[in-house]
């Protein structure tokens, strides 16, 4: 679904452009229909609720900032998914990488809690990135060297990582001053900065920059082409001296690094401490975004924003309109299903018409 | 051109009139009339791309005809699918067998029999009856073997039994001898004559004169989509048949003479590959190829050609022995594969699967060998310019570097691969079935490029399924059987019989265990 | 001393088989689905649907059997989404499975709120029917409900059906090559639809057994990835319904061990102990990928999906 602007707006070029846009428009339209249908089923007025959601997503500066807060981990998790996808790997491990990044970053913060911010913050971020990278490297190694399916290994490792977080915050890292509540001590406030007094933090900038740089590299570099070759035909790649196993480990580790960054940013800037529930399914959401964006990092930016808006609106709906938060999950599932259906049908139509 | 269409006599079982079939702008069948009679073998002859296979697929309901009519026993029919054709008594054995490798022979036969019982105990007579034809074709065949363990010739027997189980009145065989040893081909000819003797109508699609002279009663020759000639076999000489097949008597290309006392360039000694996949490994292969020499390697597909070719190009690990080019080793012996050598050109079989990345464009596919030396941010402009030049030089059509490789036809795809591999100056050319499935013009062009490089001093290792090709053009001919290389005799000393015997394993050293 | 060991062993056997039953059912369903060349990661969502709606039905009607049936039905309902996407729209199977999982997660979180902390009547243990069995057997049967032997029987029947009947052969043929199947007059879409629905029913039943029979509670995400583990373990069991039994039992044993250790006041964090089944699944899956085990067991049409070098269709 790579949207490229035509250089010569001849009529045929415009027609082709329109034909490429058509599936995306169809998907948005169908999604709104299914969302409206869902609201009708749960007994809420469909148009009004959808309008509310739009308002809660971007209606005022607070809503906008909350959407941007959600966009950061979603975009990073999307990048964590789409880079392996460029090699043909289906990784659903962003959640686990997020947790591991949080764990590693927290470890550094707890060990050096008295260090000046100028040293602590980079160290914390580096540790988070390393933690995520390791959690990505393991399934990458298993796939590259032992040909073990990465979808299943990343899914299993998600559960392991979540349990490790639990083990740590209920156990050795539990804040003694916090009697009922399993969490570590608080992180130094404002470690990642704030923008305009909102919860938006520097993580958004990191995510944005990484997405743009990755987009340029994948589209224009030799490495991006090598990934495309290995993904298209690993045998031919081997024939010209490329190594699928090495690239599998590289993309999984790098993707994991993005997920780990998401984890430490969420912990430090939003949650303020390591506790269970730092991810509300950002990994799966990131997978959805990556899919919708056609595995293109630049397109993932606006798509993350839109889906982030969906989730932020879901939170607000729960507070103000008594719509349970689970509806945001259902809507994401419907969005995913719609995208798959439209994608599948349009591929069939393309094949039929040559 | 004699025809029986309007003469009095027994009515044909199948009458095809005015059949036209187009694929895009290509006319595969151009107003073809054909009759098929029971109790006789009709050889449908023609070069690759002549339209004979397409014509029979139209009869079998694989494609609808664009124009024309088909009648069976005088009644018009229009088959919408192969199932309808099978129900009407038409059976076809394709080159690509439709068997399930992971299942046993019996399971494959049962799956293909609509009247097989629900409870499939081995002792039930209904189950046993599905083995009837198999036992007739190959008595004592063990039906509990998995198809993936069968040799190609055996699979063809199973495929034939599968088709015959449905009791067809017309049996069509599409290029059946292209994957058989000469001995197996002879056995097939016997089956074909038996089937005709039992009253079935047999159509044998082939491009080999040997098939025709062995078992045909009548021949129909097609060229470029048209029926050129139709007669009883006895009424035509082999030369006349060939003329009808290829047009004006094409002067055979003069074969290059072998170099006198060539300097040994490629030395292969006791080369063996491991038994990793299910395909046959190379076993203790030894031969030498001199500079400017063309070594042709004959052998039925599946006897280790892929393993040997990949061992020579450093793509498969070698567990014993070595292969050196001008002293430098080509083989992958340790943990890490050797970097691809600039001195070796590799033209693999089935190029769409093994030589190109189907979804990437021609420019990238042509540039694959140059990637390693390029900058991190190399632009497209140089690549496209280089591609355009290569496409023009090697006559690859359509000459559009932005097309996906998938869009090319077989012949053009092979020319693309050759453009990439042979536009460098290799010292060794490894080519696997480079002319398989190509029409005569493309095949000639491909051979010409290979021989040019031999003339310039490269060593050429040429795997081919066509013994006649090898006898005509290779300097020396060896045979690969079960991974072992036997023969390597000069062309003048080689004979069809001798090669045929070596292909069945006679004459090779007996293997241990 | 000997009696004590025997009773402990019997208790372990009973606990392991009870713990294994939900997993066995989901694995069995997914095995049959994968045998037709379709992979369904959505069984995790279908299992959740079965657990949630099975529990709801059981709690509101007071009849646990009805709960089990409702759970199976709920699984089938969700599986139609996967069938529609994969067979109707020819969508990517991995993506579709994940979408189904997300939908199942959302729907059960949404509707399950009302039933958190609810109660459901239990099924009667088998021991009541076999009063004069020897003590060892009696101890086992006292702690096992009919669902455990039911699962074993289903696996056995499935195996016989798959390998010895024509319809089983047809399912296997479709899984090996839909193209060849079509040439033989089989309709792969119809077969795959049946297998997806059947997989949904078994996954839903497995989830219902988990909530109604085994834990007798409902909580959000009660399955905790069991369905996903099942998809991975289908490979370990070589797509063979008979081998599903020992594989599931292995996990039943490990889960029982973890529960004992967690309850037994061992000085290891219960969360850390809870990682054991996942790590065990990981190890077993990795081992099963080794050459000796792998050769030629995977239904051929699945390889296009499993080893696919394409993430998007």
Attribute tags:
heterotrimer; A: 354 residues; mainly alpha; ABC transporter involved in vitamin B12 uptake, BtuC; 13 helices; B: 513 residues; alpha/beta; Rossmann fold; six-stranded mixed beta sheet; 17 helices; 20 strands; 30% helix; globular; disordered N terminus
Helix content of chain C: over 70%
Helix segment count of chain C? 15
Give me the CATH fold name of chain C.
Answer: ABC transporter involved in vitamin B12 uptake, BtuC
This entry's quaternary arrangement is: heterotrimer
Number of helices of chain A: 13
Helix and strand content put the structural class of chain C at mainly alpha
Strand content of chain A: under 5%
Order of helices and strands of chain A: HHHHHHHHHHHHH
How many domains make up the coordinates of chain C? Answer: 1
Whole-angstrom Rg of chain C: 20 Å
Counted beta strands of chain C:
0
State the CATH class of chain C.
Mainly Alpha
Low-confidence stretches of chain C: 308-313
Number of domains of chain A: 1
Shape of chain C: globular
CATH class of chain A: Mainly Alpha
The H-and-E topology of chain C, N to C, reads as HHHHHHHHHHHHHHH
Distance between the termini of chain C: 62 Å
Instruction: Say what the CATH topology of chain A is.
Output: ABC transporter involved in vitamin B12 uptake, BtuC
Distance from N terminus to C terminus of chain A (CA atoms, Å) equals 17 Å
CATH level-two architecture of chain C: Orthogonal Bundle
């Amino acid at each position: 679904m790579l949207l490229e602007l035509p250089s010569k707006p001849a009529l045929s070029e415009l027609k082709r452009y329109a034909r490429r846009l058509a599936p995306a428009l169809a998907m948005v339209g169908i999604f709104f229909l299914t969302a409206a249908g869902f609201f009708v089923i749960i007994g809420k007025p469909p148009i009004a609720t959808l309008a509310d959601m739009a308002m809660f997503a971007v209606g005022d500066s607070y809503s906008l900032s909350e959407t941007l807060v959600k966009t950061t981990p979603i975009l990073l998790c999307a990048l964590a998914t789409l880079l392996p996808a460029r090699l043909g790997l289906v990784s659903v491990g962003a959640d686990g990488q997020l947790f591991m990044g949080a764990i590693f970053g927290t470890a550094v913060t707890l060990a050096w809690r008295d260090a000046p911010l100028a040293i602590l913050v980079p160290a914390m971020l580096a540790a988070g990135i390393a933690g995520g990278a390791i959690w990505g490297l393991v399934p990458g190694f298993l796939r590259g060297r032992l040909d073990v399916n990465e979808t299943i290994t990343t899914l299993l490792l998600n559960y392991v990582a979540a349990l490790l977080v639990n083990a740590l915050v209920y156990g050795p890292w539990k804040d003694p001053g916090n009697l009922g509540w399993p969490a570590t001590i608080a992180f130094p406030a404002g470690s990642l900065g704030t923008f305009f007094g909102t919860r938006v933090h520097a993580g958004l900038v990191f995510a944005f920059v990484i997405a743009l740089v990755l987009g340029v590299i994948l589209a224009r570099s030799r490495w991006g082409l090598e990934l495309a070759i290995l993904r298209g035909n690993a045998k031919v790649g081997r024939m010209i001296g490329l190594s699928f196993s090495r690239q599998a480990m590289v993309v999984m580790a790098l993707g994991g690094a993005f997920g780990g960054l998401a984890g430490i940013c969420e912990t430090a800037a939003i949650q303020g401490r390591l506790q269970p529930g730092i991810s509300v399914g950002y990994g799966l959401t990131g997978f959805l975004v990556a899919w919708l964006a056609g595995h293109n990092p630049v397109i993932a930016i606006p798509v993350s924003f839109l889906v982030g808006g969906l989730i932020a609106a879901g939170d607000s709906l729960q507070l103000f309109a008594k719509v349970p938060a689970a509806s945001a999950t259902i809507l994401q599932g419907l969005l995913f299903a719609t995208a798959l259906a439209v994608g599948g049908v349009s591929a069939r139509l393309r094949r039929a018409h040559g | 051109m004699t025809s029986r269409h309007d003469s009095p006599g027994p009515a044909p079982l199948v009458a095809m009139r005015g059949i036209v079939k187009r694929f895009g702008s290509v006319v595969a069948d151009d107003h073809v009339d054909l009759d098929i009679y029971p109790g006789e073998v009709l050889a449908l002859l023609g070069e690759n791309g002549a339209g004979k296979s397409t014509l029979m697929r139209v009869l079998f309901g694989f494609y609808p005809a664009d124009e024309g009519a088909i009648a069976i026993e005088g009644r018009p029919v229009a088959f919408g699918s192969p199932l309808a054709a099978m129900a009407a008594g038409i059976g076809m054995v394709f080159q690509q067998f439709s068997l399930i490798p992971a299942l046993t022979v019996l399971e494959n036969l049962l799956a293909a029999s609509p009247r097989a019982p629900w409870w499939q105990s081995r002792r039930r007579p209904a189950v046993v009856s599905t083995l009837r034809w198999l036992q007739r074709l190959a008595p004592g065949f063990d039906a509990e073997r998995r198809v993936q363990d069968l040799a190609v010739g055996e699979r063809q027997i199973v495929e034939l039994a599968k088709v015959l189980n449905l009791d067809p009145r017309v049996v069509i065989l599409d290029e059946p001898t292209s994957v058989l040893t000469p001995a197996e081909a002879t056995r097939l000819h016997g089956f074909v004559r038996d089937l005709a003797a039992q009253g079935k109508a047999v159509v044998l699609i082939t491009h080999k004169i040997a098939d025709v002279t062995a078992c045909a009663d009548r021949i129909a020759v097609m060229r470029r989509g048209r029926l050129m000639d139709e007669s009883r076999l006895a009424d035509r000489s082999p030369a006349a048949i060939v003329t009808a097949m290829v047009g004006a008597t094409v002067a055979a290309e003069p074969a290059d003479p072998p170099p006198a006392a060539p300097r040994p360039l490629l030395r292969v000694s006791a080369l063996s590959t491991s038994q990793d996949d299910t395909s046959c490994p190379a076993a203790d292969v030894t031969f030498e190829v001199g500079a400017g020499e063309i070594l042709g390697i004959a052998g039925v597909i599946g006897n280790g050609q892929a393993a040997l070719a990949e061992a020579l190009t450093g793509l498969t690990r070698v567990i014993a022995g070595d292969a050196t080019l001008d002293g430098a080793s080509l083989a992958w012996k340790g943990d890490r594969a050797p970097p691809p050598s600039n001195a070796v050109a590799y033209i693999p079989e089935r190029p769409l699967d093994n030589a190109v990345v189907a979804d990437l464009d021609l420019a990238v596919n042509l540039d694959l060998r140059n990637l390693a030396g390029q900058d991190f941010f190399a632009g497209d402009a140089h690549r496209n310019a280089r591609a355009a030049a290569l496409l023009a030089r090697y006559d690859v059509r359509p000459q559009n570097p932005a097309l996906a490789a998938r869009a090319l036809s077989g012949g053009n795809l092979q020319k693309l691969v050759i453009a990439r591999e042979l536009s460098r100056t290799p010292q060794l050319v490894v080519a696997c079935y480079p002319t398989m499935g190509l029409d005569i013009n493309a095949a000639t062009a491909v051979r010409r490029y290979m021989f040019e490089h031999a003339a310039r001093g490269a060593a050429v290792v040429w795997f081919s399924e066509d013994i006649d090709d090898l006898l005509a053009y290779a300097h020396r001919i060896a045979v690969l059987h079960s991974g072992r290389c036997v023969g390597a005799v000069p062309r003048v000393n080689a004979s069809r019989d001798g090669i045929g015997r070596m292909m069945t394993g006679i004459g090779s050293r007996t293997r241990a265990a | 001393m000997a009696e004590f060991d025997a009773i402990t062993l019997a208790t372990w056997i009973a606990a392991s088989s009870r713990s294994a039953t939900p997993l066995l059912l989901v694995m069995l369903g997914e095995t049959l689905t994968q045998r037709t060349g379709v992979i369904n990661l959505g069984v995790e969502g279908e299992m959740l649907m079965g657990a949630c709606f099975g529990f709801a039905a059981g709690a509101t009607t007071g009849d646990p059997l009805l709960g089990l049936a409702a759970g199976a039905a709920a699984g089938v309902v969700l599986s139609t989404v996967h069938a529609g996407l994969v067979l109707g729209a020819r969508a990517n199977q991995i993506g579709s499975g994940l979408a189904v999982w997300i939908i199942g997660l959302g729907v059960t979180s949404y509707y399950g709120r009302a039933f958190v902390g609810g109660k459901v009547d239990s099924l009667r243990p088998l021991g009541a029917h076999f009063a004069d069995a020897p003590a060892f057997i009696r101890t086992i049967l006292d702690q096992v409900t009919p669902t455990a032997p039911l699962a074993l029987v289903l696996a056995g029947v499935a195996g016989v059906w798959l390998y010895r009947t024509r319809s089983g052969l047809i399912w296997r043929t479709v899984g090996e090559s839909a193209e060849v199947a079509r040439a033989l007059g089989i309709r792969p879409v119809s077969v795959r639809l049946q297998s997806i629905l059947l997989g949904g029913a078994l996954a839903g039943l497995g989830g219902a057994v988990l909530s109604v029979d085994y834990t007798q509670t409902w909580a959000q995400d009660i399955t905790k990835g069991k369905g996903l583990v099942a998809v991975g373990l289908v490979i370990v069991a070589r797509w063979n319904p008979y081998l599903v039994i020992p594989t599931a039992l292995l996990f039943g044993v490990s889960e029982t061990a973890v529960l004992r250790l967690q309850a037994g006041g061992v000085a290891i964090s219960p969360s850390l102990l809870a990682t054991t089944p996942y790590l065990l699944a990981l190890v077993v899956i990795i081992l099963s990928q080794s050459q000796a085990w792998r050769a030629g067991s995977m239904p051929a049409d699945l390889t296009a999906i499993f080893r696919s070098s394409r993430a998007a269709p």
